[in-house]
Amino acid sequence: SGKNQAQMEQVVVNGSESHLVVVDNPNLLQKKISAIRLAGPAKLQVIADFDATLTKYWINGCRGQSSHNLLQQEDPEYNVKRQTLYDYYHPLEFDPAIPLDEKAKLMVEWWEKTHALLIEGGLTYNAIQNSVAEATIAFRDGVTELFELLEEKGVPVLIFSAGLADIIEEVLKQKVHRSFKNVRIVSNRMVFDENGRLQSFKGKTIHVLNKNEHALDMAAPLHDHCDDLNGLGDEKSSLKKRTNVLLLGDHIGDLGMSDGLDYETRISVGFLFLHRAGVRLQCCCC
Ligand code: TMP
Questions:
Q1: In angstroms, what is the span from residue 115 Cα to ligand 1's centroid?
Q2: pLDDT tens sequence across 134-154
Q3: Which of 153, 165, 205, 209 is least surrounded, with the fewest CB atoms within 10 Å of its CB?
Q4: What ipTM score was computed for the predicted complex, to two decimals?
């Protein structure tokens, strides 16, 4: 409607053309911010997607790489095979004409075929380190500072990704040069054999459309594919008590990342890449 359109057009922040934020309902957002402030850091948790959410979509005019497509296997034949899968399935991922249940099946197919090629090609951790070193990938401005602030305030951050956990960890190592005790990664995790070659993946595959199925797992530290949450132990129940959520994503499926929580207040931030009248719309909140 015209009214909705007017709300959507409201542009907040901040002088720079490339940092436009559109707020669907500014009054509601203000109320949510006040509620989260009032409850304090002890009630807050952050749940963030990785690719194109924490990382930049554009880097010096080039498309930033994802945790999947930065990967260069030793045998280049496998890179070609994975790229062929990408060329086929990626358009389907964003095809609005495909019903969600059908699309979810296609995504399972894509992820399983890709994982199988990584195993068949005998991926090594060394290849992961080299791939990250050569990748076009960077965190968005402010991500490190945000993580530091959240660490200082004792606010947990869950990086919830349909990408590859081992690569995300390596990106954090190489690009941030430090670890954060409040940051956990829930993503597809590799198992290497005694020769250092990829043998299998742990647990159930996480793809772009089943992040909600896995949402509960984030509060279940001992679940198969959530090793990173091991050690949180008692924090499982404390995470559940953190009923205010800042959710960051770039995909409609990312909204499901907080489904396992009985949250009171959630601010969802979507990183978008629309071009309107020559302006790149970066972000929208609701
Ligand atoms: P996420 O990190 O936003 O959760 O999603 C992972 C992205 O990875 C998704 O947009 C599709 C992409 N992808 C590839 O680029 N190559 C692949 O082989 C697969 C399976 C996914």
A1: 12
A2: 999 999 999 999 999 999 999
A3: 153
A4: 0.97
